[in-house]
Design a protein that fits this description.
Blueprint lengths: L1 H17 L1 H7 L6 H52 L4 H18 L1
Helix pairs in contact: 1-3, 1-4
């Protein structure tokens, strides 16, 4: 479940950075339009991988339910961070991505 939540959180941060309003809120510098153009497809790719991993680990009976639970947790945490502490989203996203990669290789 930690892997799913970490990957879902990373995908939600990528979706957040793909939107200009949130990108200005989170980042102190401008990002090139080429990078912005690849954020949304990369987020969908990561979300698709998360769905595949959920079904592969837990099967079709419980995997989708756990996926939507992980998405709900990740989205709620991102909404709270954007509301109260938007500037810590990028460093936290890096830590969460490292946590996801470590937990994939360990577990």
């Amino acid at each position: 479940m930690l892997v799913l939540t970490s990957l879902s959180s990373s995908a939600m941060v990528l979706f957040c950075l793909a939107m200009s309003k949130h990108r200005e809120q989170v980042l102190a510098y401008q990002v090139s339009s080429l990078v912005v153009r690849f954020l949304r497809p990369l987020a969908w790719l990561l979300l698709s991988f998360t769905a595949y991993l959920s079904v592969e680990l837990f099967g079709w009976s419980i995997g989708p339910a756990l996926l939507f639970g992980a998405l709900t947790i990740a989205t709620l945490l991102l909404i709270l961070l954007l509301t109260y502490r938007a500037k810590i989203v990028p460093p936290l996203a890096i830590v969460i991505s490292l946590l996801a990669s470590i937990s994939i290789f360990i577990g």
